[in-house]
Specification:
Radius of gyration: 18 Å
Number of helices: 8
Oligomer: single chain
Number of strands: 9
Helix content: 25-40%
Strand content: 15-25%
Strand order of the largest sheet: 2-1-5-8-9
Distance between the termini: 17 Å
Mean pLDDT: 94
Largest sheet: 5 strands, parallel
Low-confidence stretches: none
């Protein structure tokens, strides 16, 4: 079966998070439409994401060779295994859904730590001399990035202010994911009424986003 990897980046429970509420509705709808997919979930606030310590790498993005790996202590070996496992899990998926709030014009830090783990030589990229090639062009893949924010950013300011969304878009293209769609849950405001309105407006776009991400 194909895999839908659903990644959430919010410490709030789902019922209190606009991005996770919309993310759940989207993944449920996608699985209704595509019965040949199975769902795999990754909560970056519950899953341990290793720090990229220098001793884990031959060079940046290249994990240690076996002889040097065997010199690590047990905790360090576990960290390396975890990074490789995260990269393998990401590479095996076909569709990716990330649900995150906008924080300080970007996203919560666990997402950056996760991306640093999965951008790995031999898994998602290949480095040779001064060039880097994305490896995730081997099959049909799609990415949907769901972002909630308290305000509404005018379209002409999105390139300047929507730094988190722009970064995720660029890094996914860099590693070879050609199809990228965004679903913005804008204007969640400071009241339950404002949040409910923003969530409902985003829900109304789910079918169109799914169609663009996987067709």
């Amino acid at each position: 079966m194909k895999k839908l990897l659903y990644i959430t980046v919010n410490s709030k429970p789902e019922e209190l998070s606009a991005s996770k509420t919309v993310g759940r509705a989207l993944t449920n709808r996608f699985l209704e439409k595509y019965a040949d997919f199975e769902l795999e979930e990754l909560d970056l606030y519950k899953c341990h994401i290793p720090r990229l310590e220098y001793q884990y790498f031959e060079k940046r993005n290249c994990m240690l060779k076996e002889d040097d790996f065997n010199k690590l202590n047990e905790k360090e070996k576990e960290e390396v295994h975890k990074m490789v496992k995260l990269a393998d899990q990401f590479k095996e998926a076909d569709l990716y859904v990330i649900a995150a709030p906008m924080w300080s014009l970007s996203f919560p830090s666990p997402l950056k730590e996760y991306i640093d783990c999965i951008v790995m030589e031999g898994k998602t990229i290949h480095m040779e001399n001064d060039t880097v090639e994305g490896l995730l062009t081997d099959k049909q893949r799609g990415m949907i990035y769901i972002q909630s924010s308290g305000g509404t950013i005018p379209w002409f300011l999105r390139m300047v202010m929507n730094k988190g969304l722009n970064y995720v878009h660029d890094i996914m293209k860099f590693i070879g994911i050609k199809r990228f769609e965004e679903l913005l849950v804008d204007g969640t405001g400071s009241t339950e009424e404002e949040k409910a309105k923003a969530v409902q407006e985003a829900m109304g776009k789910i079918d169109n986003v799914i169609e663009e991400a996987w067709r």
